[in-house]
Amino acid sequence: MNNTRPQSVLKNITMSIFANSRGFGYALMKNSLDVLDAKIITIRPVANHNVINRIKELIDYYEPQVVVLEKYDDFGTRKSKRIMKLIDLITDYVEEKNHQVFKYSRKDIRFAFSNYNAHTKYEIASVIAQNVKTLHPLLMEPRKDYESEKYTTGIFDAVSLGFTHFYLEY
Fold this sequence. Notes:
The protein is of the alpha/beta class. It has helices spanning 48-62, 81-96, 106-113, 121-131, 153-169; strands spanning 14-20, 23-31, 34-42, 66-70, 100-104.
């Protein structure tokens, strides 16, 4: 990774990270509508030590003041044990670096987007794409019952976590 950080990104940045079965999605945000960067990172082989090393690189590079993660211990959450352990590893690292950590559940995300009448992942992604024009080309088609989750969903999951943070905390 390049050792020079972009100067415009250094202050008051929030990084939201959404772990998934392929790796993770992340978003760098100044506020709920100012998404500086959003990407999905696929890790092969997908193992926690590989994923956490890549996340550590990003945290060390961007030095966010706040890191937002998914809260997995709410009733009805369906996270694998590997992803729960990964979220714990990320939390430990962020706290070790003296950054703030906030966690939000799917219920919190749905609450934050309820003003937009958005409840499903696709509806939430649509609201994000309408308000953050750079993400509009990445909006996926609604998922059929027999289809697996689309690759770009991780980006919208990460942005929805960041949006929820700004909605609930500010």
